[in-house]
Amino acid sequence: MKYRLIILFLSILSLFTFSCHNVTEPPPVDEKSLLTGKIVFSSVINGSFGIYTLNPDGTELKQITEGGVDPKWSPDGTKIAFAAPSNYSQNNYAVYIINADGSNAHIVPAQPGELSTGENHQWSPDGEKIIYSHSLTEDLFAAYRMVIVDLIKGSTLEIYNDYQEDIVPKWSPDGKKIIFISDREAKVNGMYDLYVMDSNGTNIKRLTQNGGILNYLLYPSDQSIIFSVGQSKYVASDGIGRVDTAGNLLWYNDMPGNIRFGKLSNDGKRLAFSSSAGIIQILDIQNKSIQKVIVNSVSDYRYYPVDWSIDDKELLVIATSKYSSSGYLEMVKISNGIVKRLLDDVITNSADWHK
After folding, report:
1. Is residue 236 part of a domain?
2. How far apart are CA 43 and CA 50, in angstroms?
3. Whose CB has fewer CB within 10 Å in the chain, the N or C terminal residue?
4. Is 59 exposed, middle or buried (0-12, 13-18, 19+ CB in 10 A)?
């Protein structure tokens, strides 16, 4: 179950050292960016723990829930899904939905009396369904299963897999398939590979064969999957690769640093990620070259990319201190590394940006 905690909070993300400009140099020229939409995040502000929304320029802070973590916008920006203590167990979390203005909070339909946990929730591209991982209260050894909830019909579909873990499910851009991480065919528990299935839970196919999957995301133009693996006694080295939904490995590069993903740029040409080395890095998808973003800061912060601005000029990041898993919301300009903190003395470990 340790892997689930890593997934939940790395997402949060978790990790970095950095480079900085010499303080005697003249400051880089600032440039305007297009900052639109709303940011949602979980935090404790003035003693009140909950989920908040904020403009990307740091204005109009608003609390919309009391409690809750891991908020995620619906595709149309009208609702937010988040995790909070469930009706069945205060020690475990279930998935809830609330309107963007804080009204009509309700639990996502589940198997009554059975749901112990609900996390890693993801909206379908049309906003009509949610998929998440859960386990059962009655069986202490039960691993995580997946549940697909039709929010229009109120129906649920559980993808059952005995005692292996099916975790971190995500919809394909067209909503017809679901990608997830699992150890269901591994000879050793915890050896996670990528799998794909149809959106109704059928035709499950294994896409990678070597285990060690840490993170992944889908590339929208051809629905291939970019993934990272972590070195272990079963995996020779850290790396990053790309595989299609038929299981064909398109490319793979060794890349030390325990890679943790952020997001694809809006034009689909670049991938922002970070690693245990601590530097924000930008991967050019086509030629696989790497740009390291030199952050203009004299403090020892580590940066987790959350999302790009709509014009791909800035990254929303969570900036943590060296030994913390939570940090400040900041905007980093890709071209010159200028940092703007959105809220002083307000920390979070998860955020989402609807533009």
Report:
1. yes
2. 6
3. N
4. exposed
Residue in 80, 75, 104, 109 with CA at minimum distance from that of residue 94: 109
pLDDT in tens for each of the 355 residues of the chain?
A: 434 434 443 343 332 222 333 334 444 445 567 899 999 999 999 888 999 999 999 999 999 999 999 999 999 999 999 998 876 655 678 889 999 999 999 888 765 545 556 778 999 999 999 999 887 654 555 567 888 999 999 888 888 776 678 889 999 999 999 999 998 887 666 688 999 999 999 999 999 988 889 889 988 877 899 999 987 767 778 888 999 999 999 988 887 777 888 889 999 999 999 877 678 999 998 888 888 898 887 667 889 899 999 999 999 999 998 778 789 999 999 999 999 999 999 999 999 999 9
Helix or strand run (H / E) with residue 131: strand 129-134
**Contact between residue 312 and residue 266 where contact means Cβ atoms under 8 Å apart:** yes
Give me the numbers of helices (H) and strands (E) for the chain, helices first please.
Answer: 1, 29
With beta carbons less than 8 A apart as the criterion, state whether 16 and 279 touch: yes
In a domain, 340, yes or no: no
CATH number at residue 35: 2.130.10.10
270 belongs to a structural domain = no
Domain annotation covers residue 347: no
This prediction has a pTM of 0.85
Tokens of 246: 């038929």
Range of the domain at 89: 2-261
Q: What is the DSSP code (8-state) at residue 115?
A: B
Measured distance CA(298)–CA(303) in Å, rounded: 14
